Amino acid sequence: MLFDRLNEGGPFFMYPLLFILILIIVLIAKGFLQKGSVEKTMSLISSIALFAIVWGFLGQIIGLIMAFDSIEAVGDVSPAVLAGGLKVAFLAPVFGMFDFLVGRLGIIVLTWIKKD
After folding, report:
1. Is residue 9 part of a domain?
2. What pLDDT is recorded for position 116?
3. How far apart are CA 91 and CA 8, in angstroms?
4. Contacts of residue 1, Cβ cutoff 8 Å, sequence gap at least 6
5. Which of 11, 21, 24, 89 could in theory staple to 63 by disulfide, Cβ–Cβ 3.0 to 4.6 A?
6. Which residue has the higher pLDDT, 58 or 8?
7. Long-range contacts, 109-113 (Cβ 8 Å, 24+)
8. Is residue 109 part of a domain?
9. Is 80 left (phi over 0), alpha (psi -120 to 50) or beta?
10. What confidence tens digit (pLDDT) does each residue in 32-81 have?
11. What mean pLDDT, rounded, does the chain reach?
């Protein structure tokens, strides 16, 4: 199921987002295990999470441009085909936003733990 969605959303954008998610999780774990200052790790998580959301939206824009080129070439397209194309176009940004949210939640927890 997961790999079907990754392939459906375009491997060029979705697999890097999966790698970024794994990297964010590893960095959050490193922040928990790290003694002392975690500001550098939190800054890195923040930057990588922001990159993930931008990468997802870049995938969406490129996908939509390609879809509209195809629609222009074919002419009349059924609403079901258009809806399917829009669904695929939204997979990369949704995964990018998920990556971003995991990163932000990790930063929030690390900040909260650091204050204790």
Report:
1. no
2. 62
3. 8
4. none
5. 89
6. 58
7. 109/28, 110/28, 110/31, 110/32, 110/38, 110/41, 110/42, 111/42, 113/32
8. yes
9. alpha
10. 998 777 999 999 999 999 999 999 999 999 988 888 888 888 888 888 88
11. 90
Of 54, 44, 55, nearest to 10 by C-alpha is 55
User: Is residue 49 situated within a structural domain?
Assistant: yes
Residue 7 belongs to some domain of the structure: no
Return d(Cα 37, Cα 77) in angstroms, integer.
56
pLDDT at 70: 83
Joined tokens for residue 35: 């003694």
State how far the Cα of 66 lies from the Cα of 74, in Å rounded to an integer: 12
Q: Which two tokens stand for residue 66?
A: 């390609």
Residue 45, domain extent? 14-115
Residues in the chain: 116
Angle at 18 between CA 107 and CA 81, to 5 degrees: 120
Contact indicator for 48, 103 with CB cutoff of 8 Å: yes
Question: In percent, how much of the chain has pLDDT > 70?
Answer: 99
